[in-house]
Design a protein that fits this description.
Chain lengths: 311, 311
């Protein structure tokens, strides 16, 4: 299956991930790639990170029980891997082999924001009365040019936190709501080529753009429930959306194209709940679904999709 | 157990209403509208599409059998006519209080072209809308001004408000898909406020947009999450049902006055599963109807509509 998007041609690599018998990803919540184009798949199985080569062969996995519910992942500048865990309320930095290097937040401690977890997502989001300190179910993480760490927080908060490279909080911004600078489920954060922070403000269905000091710059409204943000070599912005698609924007926010499910048929659907996106050095694109949590289907190895860039 | 705060506090009226003989459940309640004599018209998805209850919850009459494919929204005009939308058959109809159809807008089962494709997932479906279209593609809400002009929010498969004369002639439409002012992502209900302005529940943009009757954007209210239904009482107070499982009450200027929420984070103890419509009578009592079967998979029987007595 091929997709012509934003002047590029993508081909779906059928059954890309080759998992050992009995393995599944359940949910693929975060994805990162390394210099050799190995793919680090943060997921919600017993193997929280599965490492695959670009052909989809498993070349490693983390087997520790650090995560309560893994959520987001991004490569650090020093080559290590940042991960968030929204249920145990921590963000952490690991070696690519899975050794813990740094942790921000104490497991099991959540800040006071008025948030009350409920069975219904929107009831939970609606219970947040004020922004709070780190963390209440943090979601995404990125690193500034100076090594400072930015965390989007989260299901139970409405803030972006800026830490120094050692994990000391510098400041935070954001309150619950729909105005500029307010958030309803900030779900991922990424640093663009112009040193700006893009925040996937999921339940406001927009990308908010800030400078690294937290000053609001603009918003991009042509998304529906954005979940993850990544960039290609041309600095174009790829956004995964729970509306079952990926949208591609120019660096200044102009829509270049989008692709996703091609039929209304659920069984054969390409996506069930796009949650994470990463692009390797060749421009190949990986999209992860939280299909099990969001749509109650276990898609096994196909919980992650690879799109090979032909042009 | 009381609900709400300040001057707008309520208690749930247990055992309201009593269903007519032969009607086992309301299934889903699309619209609740209250007439000048405080009779409550409950538009629902049982075999008894309109059931009229008195204040005590005793059924007075029922009508509309066989008329609706999927009843969605309702409004009672100054002359006592009942206007109902049917998003399943793409029409809006006016009835006299006894249920005789007086006017039908739209062509039954003929949706307009907007690029919309209905899938199993509501956000994916909303995202398929490429451009605005003429009336209708799954219309949702309706309101009528003092001259008898009809305004319709349209809808699941469109992104417009349409203005008709009292005899059903289309005068004007406005709206495009998107998140900017004047754009819509699932306009789900429409009301007239005490200043003769139109309030539109822009459900998947989580905001109330305010327009004059010519369609000029005036302002937006942000303190809602997935608003579904809007009513304005004789004092100009605005009641909004929300899919964040609550009802918010605003001053005529849009300041939050009170909020009726689930007391518990447990589903078993939920007062609300899917608030979809709200009605208010001359005593200030409010009626909240839910689409709990469609949205949450739970048949609440008679309690698909609940009465809250103002304290």
């Amino acid at each position: 299956m091929r997709f012509h998007v934003a002047g590029i041609e993508l081909e779906l690599v059928e059954d890309w991930a080759k998992l050992p018998d009995g393995w599944t990803f359940r949910d693929v919540c975060g994805i990162a790639t390394d210099e050799a184009d190995n793919v680090y798949v943060l997921n919600r199985s017993e193997h929280p990170v599965v490492v695959l080569d670009r052909e989809g062969h498993v070349v490693g996995s983390w087997e520790h029980g650090f995560f309560s519910r893994a959520h987001g992942a991004r490569r650090a500048r020093d080559g290590s891997l940042f991960c968030t865990d929204d249920v145990s309320n921590v963000v952490a930095k690991f070696t690519l082999g899975g050794e813990l290097l740094m942790q921000i937040g104490e497991k099991g401690e959540s800040s006071d924001t008025g948030y009350q977890a409920a069975w219904d997502l929107w009831q939970g989001v609606g219970s947040i009365t004020h922004g709070g300190p780190p963390f209440n179910r943090p979601t995404g993480i990125t690193e500034g040019m100076d090594g400072d760490i930015y965390v989007s927080d989260g299901y139970g908060n409405a803030r972006i936190h800026r830490f120094d490279s050692q994990g000391h909080l510098k400041y935070s911004w954001g309150e619950p709501g729909g105005r500029p600078g307010e958030f309803r489920l900030p779900h991922d954060i990424a640093l663009d080529s112009m040193d700006r922070l893009l925040v996937a403000d999921r339940e406001n269905s927009r990308i908010q753009v800030f400078d690294i000091d937290g000053n609001y710059l603009e918003q991009w409204n042509d998304v529906v429930r954005p979940t993850g943000i990544s960039f290609d070599a041309n600095n174009n912005v790829f956004v995964s959306e729970l509306a079952m698609r990926v949208s591609v924007f120019s660096p200044d926010g102009g829509l270049l194209g989008r692709w996703g499910n091609t039929t209304a048929d659920r069984e054969s659907a390409l996506f069930h709940a796009p949650h994470a996106i990463a692009i390797d050095s060749r421009g190949d694109i990986y999209v992860g679904d939280v299909a099990y949590t969001h749509a109650k289907v276990d898609r096994g190895a196909n919980t992650i999709r690879k799109f090979h860039r032909l042009t | 157990m009381t609900y709400g705060t300040g001057d707008y506090r309520y208690e749930l009226v247990e055992g309201w209403p009593t269903l007519p003989e032969g009607c086992a459940s309301l299934i889903d309640v699309g619209g609740v509208a209250v007439d000048a004599n405080d009779n409550v018209y409950v538009l629902n998805r049982s075999d008894y599409p309109i059931i009229v209850f008195d204040r005590e919850g005793t059924p007075v009459r029922h009508w509309g059998e066989g008329f609706f494919k999927r009843a969605h929204g309702s409004f009672i005009s100054r002359d006592g006519s009942i206007y109902c939308t049917d998003d399943g058959s793409h029409i809006v109809a006016r009835f006299d209080p006894g249920g005789n159809p007086l006017l039908v807008l739209g062509t039954r089962d003929k949706p307009s072209d907007t690029g919309y494709t209905r899938t199993w997932e509501v956000y994916q479906s909303v995202s398929t809308i490429k451009h605005a279209g003429p009336p209708f593609n799954r219309p949702t809400g309706v309101v009528v001004n003092d001259r008898g002009d009809i305004f319709v929010s349209d809808g699941y498969g469109n992104c417009r408000v349409h203005h008709f004369t009292s005899d059903g002639t289309l005068i004007k439409s406005w709206g495009e898909p998107g998140g900017w002012p004047g754009q819509f992502k699932l306009p789900h209900d429409i009301a007239l406020d005490s200043k003769a302005r139109l309030l539109v529940a822009d459900r998947e943009n989580s905001r109330i947009q305010v327009f004059d009757q010519d369609g000029t954007f005036i302002e937006q209210w942000y303190d809602v999450i997935r608003p579904t239904g809007i009513r304005v009482d004789a004092d100009g107070v605005v009641y909004v049902s929300e899919f964040s499982l609550r009802v918010s009450i605003f001053s005529p200027e849009g300041q939050l006055l009170s909020r009726i929420t689930n007391h518990s984070a447990n589903r078993d103890e939920a007062t609300f599963l899917a608030p979809h419509t709200v009605g208010v009578d001359s005593h200030g009592d409010i009626y909240v109807g839910e689409v709990s079967k469609t949205y949450a998979g739970t048949d609440k029987g008679a309690r698909t509509v609940q009465k809250f007595r103002r304290l």
